[in-house]
Amino acid sequence: MSAPPDPGVRTTDPLDLSRSRHAEPRRGGGRTWQVLIGGAAVLMLLALTGLAVAALLEDRTATPQAGQQSSPPAVEQSAAADGHDLDSRDTDQAALTAKEVFPGQQLVVADGQPAYRVLKTHSSGSCAVAATGEVADLLVRLGCNQVVRATLRSADGDHLLTAGLFNLTDVASAQRARDRIRPMLDERQGRFRGMAASNDTEVVATAAARVGWQVRGHYLAYCVVTRADGERISSTDTKARDILYDMIEVYLNRGVLERRANGGVASQPTAGPTDGTAGQDGSGN
């Protein structure tokens, strides 16, 4: 029987990431990602990026969760001969690490852009720590065995976010999770959890949030974004839309997973700008 509706989740109008300052052609080597941003039962296929997009507004009222990780942005886009097939854990056996996904305290998505501050990172073999209710149950049933995530602050300090990667069994299980999460969020039957890094970042786990998620191979990437002041985040908040695009498409897809698919051919910075994501999710069931 379905869990009772989660009163902390509400939907809003779809976000059109094609209008984002980051919208640009995908380069070769990466598989098409499908991004879902919870919305009023609207699914949009973006012609230039192949991303399905919607928007979700969530009100959080519970306790903070564990931190999450980040990874570097610059990668080789062409597949390497010794690269990994990301469609299954059978062909991509190495577990993710926090250092791989979120290696530093600063995350620069693109040259010339101000850095996100990585406040906290976390890796766990229990995917349920990063979700609640039926969303958490779904991830476990579909074989999720790891989540790596981080909480970050935007360069201007106005937004807090939590972002990361769920490691599922194969592409089919990741796609099934992607398709089933949206109706669960719309019905308030669960949500992604945000992670507080300190007392002044608890709103990432309790305040209203915009949420996005996307699949590549057997990974489900996600990000939740809140206002740092805890005020309700507007469906027209273009900065939140840009953050979702930065974290999910540019950083996690074109950065972390593209590098992994290429067999790690891109160097990972050990100093200077690094990647990170952040967001908020309530910890209620």
From TrEMBL:
TM helices/strands, residue ranges: 35-57
UniProt biased composition (Basic and acidic residues): 16-27
Compositionally biased intervals (Polar residues): 63-72
Region feature Disordered, mapped onto this chain: 1-30, 63-90, 262-285
Keyword Transmembrane helix: yes
Keywords for the protein's UniProt record, in alphabetical order: Membrane, Transmembrane, Transmembrane helix
Designated name of the protein: Uncharacterized protein
